[in-house]
Amino acid sequence: MDEKLKRSIILDHYQNPRHRGLIDDKNYLTSNTNNDSCIDEINLMAKIDDNKISDIRFDGEACAICTSSTSIMIETLIGKSKEEAKKIVSNFENMIDEKEYDEELLEQAIVYNDIYKQANRKKCALLPWWGMKKILEKDDVNEK
């Protein structure tokens, strides 16, 4: 994917984030993640029905990278099974950490494939994914 297209996708998700706004529904699992070195703080809530992610919502204050990463993550994960979501999250983390990953799984999230070049931005991109990982782990505990 060329750099101009990547920037365009990131900017679109920053200016028009999808699924922004929390709702009052106890059927959602929640998480909060923040970056101690900047303003980024993301509140996530996800609804998992029959082992499938049916909805994810978010709110918070964050930079362009963090906000767009959250929006892209949500679009990527809604409709996926928990196992698929875990695999996608793991592959995203590997991509950011310059480890082996399956680019096909990441869909639009591939736009961050060179964010590792800006070490100070890695946490911005990872923050929402860490929050979603917490939610998936909470759901695993709830199932037991």
Q: Total domains, how many?
A: 1
Major β-sheet profile: 3 strands, antiparallel
Unreliable parts: none
CATH architecture: Alpha-Beta Complex
Helicity range of the residues? 40-55%
Short description:
By secondary structure, the protein is of the alpha+beta class. The protein has helices at 3-15, 64-77, 82-96, 119-143; strands spanning 29-34, 41-49, 52-61. It has a single domain, classed as Alpha-Beta Complex (Sufe protein. Chain: A).
Protein architecture, described:
Helices cover 47% and strands 17% of the residues. It has helices at residues 3-15, 64-77, 82-96, 119-143, and strands at residues 29-34, 41-49, 52-61. It has a single domain (3-143), classed as Sufe protein. Chain: A (Alpha-Beta Complex), CATH 3.90.1010. Helix 1 crosses helix 2 (64-77), helix 2 (64-77) runs parallel beside helix 4 and helix 3 (82-96) packs antiparallel against helix 4. A hairpin with a 2-residue loop joins strand 2 and strand 3. A three-stranded antiparallel beta sheet has the order 1-2-3, with helices on one face. The protein is an alpha+beta fold. The longest helix is centred in the last third of the chain and has 25 residues, at 119-143. The chain is globular and about 40 Å long. The model has no long low-confidence stretch (mean pLDDT 95). It contains four helices and three strands.
